[in-house]
Amino acid sequence: MPYTLLANNSYLFASGLLGVLVRPANKEDLPGLMWIEHECFGRERFSRRYLLSLLQNQEVDVLIGMVEGNVVASAMVLHDPSTIRSRILSLAIIPEEQGHGRSKPLLTHIEELARQRGSLIVFLEVRVENDAAINLYLGRGYRIGDRIPDFFGRGEDAWYMERALL
Ligand SMILES: CC(C)(COP(=O)(O)OP(=O)(O)OC[C@H]1O[C@@H](n2cnc3c(N)ncnc32)[C@H](O)[C@@H]1OP(=O)(O)O)[C@@H](O)C(=O)NCCC(=O)NCCS
After folding, report:
1. How far does residue 91's CA lie from ligand 1's centre (Å)?
2. CATH code of 75's domain
3. pLDDT (tens digit, 9 = 90+) per residue, 49-77?
4. Distance of CA 27 to the CA centre of its chain
5. What is the pTM of this model?
6. Which end of the chain, C or N, has fewer beta carbons within 10 A?
7. Best of 98, 134, 163 for a ligand 1 pocket test (most atoms within 8 Å of beta carbon)
8. What are the backbone angles phi and psi of residue 114, rounded to the nearest 5°?
9. Contact criterion met (CB below 8 Å) for 40 and 71
10. Which domain, by its residues, includes 21?
11. When comparing pLDDT for 125 and 166, which is higher?
12. What are the residue ranges of helices labelled H in the chain?
């Protein structure tokens, strides 16, 4: 996916009709991150405290996606040098911006950061009924692994998905 490197580690991806600016999040983005979590995950959103801990964790990259100056997306990925694997903790596009190819630049960027950290595998857990996310990852070359019972709570199973980074 073509992109342009801007100042401050920001990347402008040509995607859909409008470009998506992807940049590292900072503490000032906390309200925006909380809003996206609320819009996308409702009661199952990450708490303020957890988001803050992710922002402060050196092994985590937290990304913000912007369109025309507005925050519309977020992504979080945890790198584990000991296993050379990176785990996608969250990837979210606000509902109004879904379905326009916004997620692909974020996923591309996540994978690039994982490569830079030396990871060989990117993995995640996704709700078994989350067709949009499952299709997104399948289209990107992820494979479905085990079904994890009760991963998101009682009766709420997840698929484990992973992709080898080349
Ligand atoms: C999953 C999510 C990130 C996808 O973002 P998006 O910007 O709407 O997706 P895109 O428009 O970039 O589409 C990328 C691919 O996802 C799949 N997809 C997207 N929306 C879909 C839908 N409603 N149904 C089925 N597949 C869908 C398609 O494979 C699509 O590729 P294509 O356009 O080449 O067919 C978004 O729906 C979202 O934020 N959902 C709520 C939070 C969430 O569930 N996050 C995933 C946690 S693992």
Report:
1. 10
2. 3.40.630.30
3. 999 999 999 999 999 999 988 999 999 99
4. 18
5. 0.93
6. C
7. 98
8. -60, -45
9. no
10. 3-164
11. 125
12. 30-41, 48-56, 103-116, 131-139
